[in-house]
Amino acid sequence: MDNRILDESIRRVPDFPKKGILFYDITSVLTNPEAFKWCLDKMLEIYRPKKEDGTINAIASVESRGFLFAAPLAEKLSLPLVLIRKKGKLPGEVFRASYDLEYGSAEIEVHKADVRAGQKFLLIDDLIATGGTLDAGKRLMQMADAEVTEIFGIIGLPDLKFREALAPVNVTTLIDYHGA
């Protein structure tokens, strides 16, 4: 089966969050059990061999929709799952990294105790646009002497050059959309 079931499940919202932006809403995939299962099955197909060959030995995910795809994958692969949260959401000692937004910047954090030196992470988010958030996530792992060896998103917007921004890490998406 190709990715038509995924494409047909993704809601397009014009002019959100501002005029001229076409927003690809992943929440509609979650309301379609067949499409959600298709995504999880594809993720298992891609990452089970990478666990077996040692390319990855942990999963990290960015708040919040990325958690919904990362958690079942981590369970199926029996890998630890590390949550990357927005600034101020974690109670313990954290590593913090900032990234640029269209107007300003934001910060994400990870518990220092959750990341071990030498771990090889698959980093997951729902949609990859410029790659800024995932690059910050990659830097968080590096602060703990861990490494992001793979990056995954359900949706990719390659016209925004996320692969270049995240190089040399391999980036995999299930569907890419070009243009607005």
TrEMBL record:
This is Adenine phosphoribosyltransferase. Its EC number is 2.4.2.7. Pathway: Purine metabolism; AMP biosynthesis via salvage pathway; AMP from adenine: step 1/1. The gene is apt. Belongs to the purine/pyrimidine phosphoribosyltransferase family. One of its GO terms (cellular component) is cytoplasm. Homodimer. Catalyzes a salvage reaction resulting in the formation of AMP, that is energically less costly than de novo synthesis. It is found in: Cytoplasm. Residues 28-148 form the Phosphoribosyltransferase domain. It catalyses: AMP + diphosphate = 5-phospho-alpha-D-ribose 1-diphosphate + adenine. SUPFAM superfamilies: PRTase-like. One of its GO terms (molecular function) is adenine binding. One of its GO terms (biological process) is purine ribonucleoside salvage. It comes from the Bacteria. Pfam families: Pribosyltran. Keywords: Cytoplasm, Glycosyltransferase, Purine salvage, Transferase.
